[in-house]
Amino acid sequence: xxxxxxxxxxxxxxxxxxxxxxxxxxxxxxxxxxxxxxxxxxxxxxxxxxxxxxxxxxxxxxxxxxxxxxxxxxxxxxxxxxxxxxxxxxxxxxxxxxxxxxxxxxxxxxxxxxxxxxxxxxxxxxxxxxxxxxxxxxxxxxxxxxxxxxxxxxxxxxxxxxxxxxxxxxxxxxxxxxxxxxxxxxxxxxxxxxxxxxxxxxxxxxxxxxxxxxxxxxxxxxxxxxxxxxxxxxxxxxxxxxxxxxxxxxxxxxxxxxxxxxxxxxxxxxxxxxxxxxxxxxxxxxx
Length: 287
Description:
By secondary structure, the chain is α/β, with parallel strands linked by helices. It has two domains: 71 residues, Ubiquitin-like (UB roll); 149 residues, Rossmann fold (3-Layer(aba) Sandwich), CATH 3.40.50. It has six helices and 14 strands.
């Protein structure tokens, strides 16, 4: 019994010593693991500050896909100060900021380590019309009630999807293409679902259109090479109305355009012509 008890006691002592060694080893490994991670993190921080991985000047930013805005204009929209540590830059954040700019529809930003650079791919918005609206209103607000005093107009730009771009900020980017010549008056946000189809119908029409007046939803008015034309409310028949207008090109051979107030195409199957009122000359009796 004594030998069995002594053996058991010896085994217990050895087990305790083994457990102590294992705990010390685990503690040692944990310390080294912490030191390794701290060293690795410090090394990464140090690496990110190396001159080889730093954006020092705008020339290290490549701009791709731009056709309207210059490289310098898009770089100015990035709002980056220099130097910039390449690995600390967040491409997604930069792309989101660019897409907040009215002139940029889509942006993709990627980092290149060798050589250190940024690549910015953009899809620009192409303005197709100059839009005029009251300075105290916005494209999302309704037209002032009839009879209200006229308000000064502020100018903006529309792309073919009806996205509004402030004219001053867009012109400040010095686009390489000239501004559009087509004008639209009275554009509102509720017109946006129809704008794309309306614009494409106008741009494809053989009849030259200079101005679109949409101040009255019940009467869309176009200033064309054939004079003023009233279309009534915009509808799916708009393209057909333009085709009827094109067939009326011989109108000047029958009527003097100076006598025509406007062409009425509210019913394109029965076009009408509104003539200007002729006032009789005032005569005075000589004494």
